[in-house]
Amino acid sequence: MKKWIVLMMMVVAFPAYATFLNTKDGGRIMRGDSVAEVVSGLGRPLARAFETVCTKERGGHCKQWEAVERWQYIQEDLNWTVTIMGGKVVDTEWHR
User: Fold this and answer.
1) Which helix (DSSP H) or strand (DSSP E) does residue 85 occupy?
2) Which of 2, 30, 65, 76 has a 20 to 30 Å separation from 85 between CA atoms?
3) Are 44 and 74 in contact (CB under 8 A)?
4) What's 42's domain CATH number?
Protein backbone atom coordinates (compact mmCIF):
# COMPACT_ATOMS: atom_id res chain seq x y z
CA MET A 1 0.00 0.00 0.00
CA LYS A 2 2.84 2.40 0.86
CA LYS A 3 4.41 1.81 -2.55
CA TRP A 4 1.21 2.90 -4.30
CA ILE A 5 0.93 6.04 -2.19
CA VAL A 6 4.54 6.99 -2.94
CA LEU A 7 4.02 6.25 -6.64
CA MET A 8 0.88 8.40 -6.77
CA MET A 9 2.67 11.27 -5.00
CA MET A 10 5.48 11.11 -7.54
CA VAL A 11 3.05 11.14 -10.47
CA VAL A 12 1.21 14.15 -9.06
CA ALA A 13 4.42 16.08 -8.27
CA PHE A 14 6.16 15.31 -11.58
CA PRO A 15 4.38 17.80 -13.90
CA ALA A 16 5.03 20.68 -11.49
CA TYR A 17 8.77 20.16 -11.85
CA ALA A 18 8.60 20.60 -15.62
CA THR A 19 7.30 24.17 -15.40
CA PHE A 20 10.69 25.71 -14.69
CA LEU A 21 14.39 25.16 -15.31
CA ASN A 22 16.94 25.54 -12.49
CA THR A 23 19.85 27.91 -13.09
CA LYS A 24 23.47 27.42 -12.04
CA ASP A 25 23.08 29.81 -9.11
CA GLY A 26 19.89 28.22 -7.75
CA GLY A 27 17.42 30.51 -9.51
CA ARG A 28 14.67 29.43 -11.88
CA ILE A 29 13.86 30.14 -15.51
CA MET A 30 10.15 30.09 -16.24
CA ARG A 31 7.51 31.53 -18.56
CA GLY A 32 7.73 35.33 -18.77
CA ASP A 33 11.46 35.62 -17.96
CA SER A 34 13.59 37.76 -20.27
CA VAL A 35 16.36 36.58 -22.58
CA ALA A 36 18.85 38.40 -20.33
CA GLU A 37 17.70 36.32 -17.34
CA VAL A 38 18.10 33.11 -19.34
CA VAL A 39 21.64 33.97 -20.49
CA SER A 40 22.60 35.18 -17.02
CA GLY A 41 21.30 32.03 -15.33
CA LEU A 42 22.13 29.34 -17.89
CA GLY A 43 24.76 30.83 -20.20
CA ARG A 44 24.68 30.63 -23.97
CA PRO A 45 22.60 27.74 -25.40
CA LEU A 46 24.25 24.66 -26.86
CA ALA A 47 22.03 24.96 -29.95
CA ARG A 48 19.58 27.52 -31.31
CA ALA A 49 16.80 27.14 -33.86
CA PHE A 50 14.83 29.94 -35.49
CA GLU A 51 11.46 29.91 -37.20
CA THR A 52 8.60 32.25 -38.02
CA VAL A 53 5.16 31.23 -36.77
CA CYS A 54 1.65 32.54 -37.28
CA THR A 55 0.35 34.13 -34.08
CA LYS A 56 -2.92 35.53 -35.40
CA GLU A 57 -5.08 33.80 -37.98
CA ARG A 58 -8.36 34.96 -39.47
CA GLY A 59 -10.39 33.37 -42.23
CA GLY A 60 -7.76 30.73 -42.91
CA HIS A 61 -5.06 33.35 -43.55
CA CYS A 62 -2.29 34.47 -41.24
CA LYS A 63 -2.60 38.11 -40.19
CA GLN A 64 0.44 38.28 -37.89
CA TRP A 65 3.79 36.49 -37.92
CA GLU A 66 6.41 36.41 -35.15
CA ALA A 67 9.94 35.07 -34.86
CA VAL A 68 10.44 32.20 -32.42
CA GLU A 69 13.76 30.95 -31.06
CA ARG A 70 14.29 27.57 -29.44
CA TRP A 71 17.36 27.35 -27.22
CA GLN A 72 18.64 23.97 -26.08
CA TYR A 73 20.46 23.12 -22.87
CA ILE A 74 21.49 19.89 -21.14
CA GLN A 75 20.96 19.76 -17.40
CA GLU A 76 20.99 16.70 -15.13
CA ASP A 77 20.90 14.31 -18.12
CA LEU A 78 17.80 16.02 -19.54
CA ASN A 79 17.57 17.95 -22.80
CA TRP A 80 15.78 21.23 -22.13
CA THR A 81 14.24 23.44 -24.80
CA VAL A 82 13.51 27.06 -23.92
CA THR A 83 11.14 28.71 -26.41
CA ILE A 84 11.52 32.48 -26.76
CA MET A 85 9.20 34.90 -28.52
CA GLY A 86 9.43 38.68 -28.36
CA GLY A 87 12.43 38.54 -26.02
CA LYS A 88 10.54 36.52 -23.37
CA VAL A 89 10.36 32.85 -22.41
CA VAL A 90 7.03 31.42 -23.59
CA ASP A 91 7.69 27.74 -22.82
CA THR A 92 10.16 25.33 -21.23
CA GLU A 93 10.07 21.63 -21.96
CA TRP A 94 12.37 18.68 -21.43
CA HIS A 95 12.97 15.21 -22.81
CA ARG A 96 15.51 12.46 -22.29
Assistant:
1) strand 78-85
2) 76
3) no
4) 3.30.1450
